[in-house]
Amino acid sequence: MRPFLLLGTRAEDDAADDEYAGFLRYAGLRESELHRVRVEAAPLPEVDLTAYSGIVLGGSPFNASDEHKGEVQRRVERDLAALVRRVVEADVPFLGACYGIGLLGLACGGTVDRRYGEAPAAVEVSLTEEGRTDPLLAGVPDPFHAIVGHKEACAVLPPGAVLLASSAGCPTQMFRIGRHVYATQFHPELDAESLERRLHIYAGHGYCEPEEVAPIVAQARSVDLGPVRGLLPAFVQRFGRPA
C-alpha cells in the first residue's frame, strides 16, 4: 500500500505528536504508512499526489478568520490552499479535520466565519440523507458522538459540495466535494485522553480556561465515542492503493 500523508500545523511538539499518534491509532496505520509533514515548521515542498494513497489535514491553532496573522500563518494558508486546489481538481482522496474543513471550504468558494463556533465537548452529530448513503460513513450510526472544539466553521458550503453531517450548534459537521475529497468539523482522531492533553496545552487561548478542563473531559468520557472511530479505518480501507 502507498503511504498516506498527514499535514500538521501545530507548533507545539507535544500537541503535534499527540495528533500524529491519534491518527495512527484510529486509522490502524504504522508510522511507515503515515508520513507526516509539519507545515508550520517549513514551506511545504511540492507534493507528488500519485505517491500517496490519500492526504489527511489535521487541526490547528490557526483560524482563517483571525484578525491578525503572523508570517508563518499566512505562509501555511497559502501553501495548503494551493495544495487543496490541486487535490480537488484531481479528486485525490483527502480528509480534512477541523482546520481542514475551513481551509477546504474557503479554497473552494465557501464561507468560513465565527457564527458557528463550538466550545470543546463531545456533541451529537446527525447524518443527512446523503451522509447515510456515503460509503465513508457506512459503518457510522445516525446519530453519533464526536469531539469538537473550534472558533470558526463553514457557514456556507462551497458550490457543489454535499453536506453529510450536522449538529445542533454547527450546521456543517462534514461535507464532500467530488467523490473523494472529505472534510469534518469534528475530530475523528480524538479520544477523551487526547482531548485532556490538548486542552491543557491550549487552555487560556480562547477555547477554555484551565479550571474548565476537568468537566469537559468528564463529559467526553460520559458518551460513547466508539462509532466515530469507524471513519478513519473506512478512509484507509477505501483509498489504500497498491504501491
Automatic annotation (TrEMBL):
One of its GO terms (molecular function) is transferase activity. The keyword rRNA-binding does not apply. Keywords: Glutamine amidotransferase, Transferase. GO terms for cellular component: cytosol. InterPro entries: ChyE-like (IPR044992), Class_I_gatase-like (IPR029062), GATASE (IPR017926). Gene3D superfamilies: 3.40.50.880. It holds the Pfam family GATase. Residues 33-192 form the Glutamine amidotransferase domain. The keyword Transferase applies. This is Glutamine amidotransferase. It comes from Serinicoccus chungangensis. The lineage of its organism: Bacteria, Bacillati, Actinomycetota, Actinomycetes, Micrococcales.
